[in-house]
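#random but structural
TW: two for the price of one
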Amino acid sequence: MRALILAPFSGRVLDQLRRRIDVAYESWLDTNMIQDPDELGMRLTAENIGILIVEADFVFDEVFDAAPGLQLVGVCRNALNHVDIESATAHGVAVTHAPGRNTAAVAELTLGLMLSLARRIPAAHTMVSGAGWTDPSLGYRYFRGREIAGSAIGVVGFGQIGRAVARIGHALGGRVLAFDPFVTDAEMQTLGVTAASLDVIAATCDFVSLHVPDSDATTHLVDATFFSKMRRDAYLINTSGGGVVDPIALVDALSAGRIAGAALDVYEGQPLPASSPLMSAPNLILTPHIGGATAETIERHSSMMASEIEALLDGTPLQYVVNPEYRAARAR
């Protein structure tokens, strides 16, 4: 049995794995290619690949149909929308993932965007680099910002990343409110966070930070109605799902001055097309989905996937398996 790794991976961990199993490594970031599912399934069988590790590639029913020898699919993400879990289970294939592998990275980017908005760092850089700083007082007159200390920070979605942002907010002297229908008020209170409704967060917070996944329930969760409730001096940061914010409503809110600014790392369509109205919206910071783009994130998910591969080889339980029912199908 061989392993095929299509995700970016730590060289150190690859060396560790290759002492146990033959590994083909073809990161999609190196090949700049997403595998065709039909071709991928045939390749897995032809090359005796029983372990597949992905980050961006899709593993749907046709892959499982074409690769009866496949035993494990590892996803170097927390989200599992790239894999047909039901089909994997029916084919007796274990699916595992890497929860929390980018928690620190996304939380820190959120802080960076928050500070960039509060202190207008990109605009200040543009002034200086463009030779526009012609008077010593210009910075004080045009770039007077605000401090996170003493501000109210609204966290929408209180999973691992939302909690990390809350801890950072507290450390900087902010007051944190959070909304998450799946987390109890008592649990939030034990972490020093005040449970609040979406309406309260919109109406009272200086910074609103989004940390919910893309789903039918969260599509355009932040829309024109939400923006109408926000304070004019408040900021929005989205490092979660691209569909969570209605882009047209955001552009309208920024253009009308209904909010002070926003920062986005994710979008409904990626890459963001040049024709997007977001490109010309005022007081908007745009980054190219770099929330998890750190060396530490790769090290973390590499170690997690390696431990799952070694557990499979040793016949011991997988720590991050999401479909334990696969065993029943594999036993048939």
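TW: number two ↓
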Amino acid sequence: MTSERSRVRGFTIIELLVVVSIIALLVGILLPAIGKARQGAMLTQSISNIRQVGTTLITYSAEYNDKHVTFCVDNLGAYGDNGPSAFANYAAQTGNEHPQLYLGLGQAGIWYYQPPELVNIPMNFENGFGSFRIPNAMILADYMNGKFYDPVYYAPKDTAVQASIESALDLPMGFPGDDG
């Protein structure tokens, strides 16, 4: 009698290589589709954020007799015919300095009007990105959800900015380091 050895049949190296190459091919086909789906989701989120900010602007306008958001006292023009005289008369009549009037962001930094002169603050990205968003968010934050640092103000694809504000997202209305 011959003894037959039981043979355990396994996969050959060629069969394993074929299976691995099929899996790699499928992954190669699916990754671009996943990337496109992610881009589409970010676009949808951006559109939703813009719609929410637009609704906030409409709400603000409705509450303030159809006036748009401004970054100065609504009736500042009643205090004078030009910027310097209006700011000076405002301070004289109210006893308060008018807050700085943010004009926008330029290549040299943030421009604002601090009576009696135009001032430029060079941008310092080491301290974060939020500073040049102050005029947009602070006035409208109460109409949104009461927070300055909220993802709705930032583009979903802007990962550098998203990462820089991540630690501040749980803060209430104020800024990091503010006592008030």
